[in-house]
């Protein structure tokens, strides 16, 4: 009889809700992908390189000029100097980078601390490496980390902590005190950090993204992972990267070469052009998405939902306690089938499902879509 390596996993909640959205012709605010297109320059340059015959394997670690543009961006944004050739690895999406980083450091019986609600790729990757995920729950409405609980969760087997900032799905960002507490634990217990920073360029209300790359001590112990898909509205390209100190990047690349070997070559050249010629796109991203967040909040102001603060990402959380007594999974099914709006329940991102009545909406959509969805939700 065949025995599954991941017996408890089924179809992801994103696939489920998007499938229901299609089935019921609902407005899809569930899965986190933009409704609008990638920048024109990016598309033009992709086509240019395809037509020029730049269609073969690239170096496994990435096209050198893209690696250098990433290093330039890091220096400009975080005042951190990194060696592009040795420390930057281009990957087939951030999910591949997360998987490879976990495989690089996690051995059988190692423990990795993750914060719930957590992105759903973390735990399977840890288990496939023979490790165990140790879950620390963050609760509504603030989703703040209790570092005393984190400290108590650390054992002699703890290998790493996975942090995600800006955080999906809570939309919170780490604060200076969080960085201070994290540094103390990393130093005291000699553990690694896997930092999921795919929404690094989307923070609101003037708040600063505190990348692990900003801090020299954390930079030496961290795999920092980001996503061009989130930054350039091109999630279908599956292009991301990992930055790590040279000795960790060397080990990372040993595994990466046998997962994807290299990533889509013409896209790498197009992304290098985009970073070099239209770097302002990155700087304008926060304002672009803050406008969409504020638009959605404005049009939900007359609803019975309690709107939780969104500090970053392109997600907004709603507490529906005054709308329904259903649990969040059932409520999301009802919402898509009966009301015509698809959302994501938060409890599925917890090891021990929370009783919070909170759902997640994606506002990376056209303004007309957001207004139409808000009008429907205001009628509930």
Summarize the SSE layout with pairings.
Layout: H1 13-23, E1 27-28, H2 40-51, H3 64-78, H4 84-87, E2 88-91, H5 94-105, E3 111-116, H6 122-128, E4 132-137, H7 147-153, E5 158-164, H8 176-189, E6 192-196, H9 216-219, E7 222-227, H10 228-231, E8 240-243, H11 246-256, H12 265-277, H13 280-299, E9 306-307, E10 315-319, H14 328-339, E11 341-342, E12 344-345, E13 358-362, H15 367-378
Parallel strand pairs: 1-11, 3-4, 3-5, 5-6, 6-7
Antiparallel strand pairs: 2-8, 7-8, 9-10, 10-13, 12-13
Helix pairs in contact: 2-12, 3-12, 5-6, 5-11, 13-15
EC number: 2.6.1.-
Cofactor: pyridoxal 5'-phosphate
GO cellular component, one term: cytoplasm
CATH topology of the largest domain: Aspartate Aminotransferase, domain 2
Oligomer: single chain
Question: How many domain units?
Answer: 2
CATH class of the largest domain: Alpha Beta
The DSSP helix count reads 15
Which percent bin holds the helix content?
Answer: 40-55%
Would you identify the CATH architecture of the largest domain? 3-Layer(aba) Sandwich
Radius of gyration: 20 Å
What percentage of the residues does DSSP assign to strands (E)? 5-15%
Order of helices and strands: HEHHHEHEHEHEHEHEHEHHHEEHEEEH
Mean pLDDT: 97
Which regions are unreliable across 5 or more consecutive residues at pLDDT < 50?
none
The coarse silhouette is globular
- Give the structural class: alpha/beta
Q: How many E-type strands?
A: 13
Strand order of the largest sheet: 2-8-7-6-5-3-4
- Could you state the CATH homologous superfamily of the largest domain? Type I PLP-dependent aspartate aminotransferase-like (Major domain)
Q: Sketch the major β-sheet.
A: 7 strands, mixed
Termini distance? 49 Å
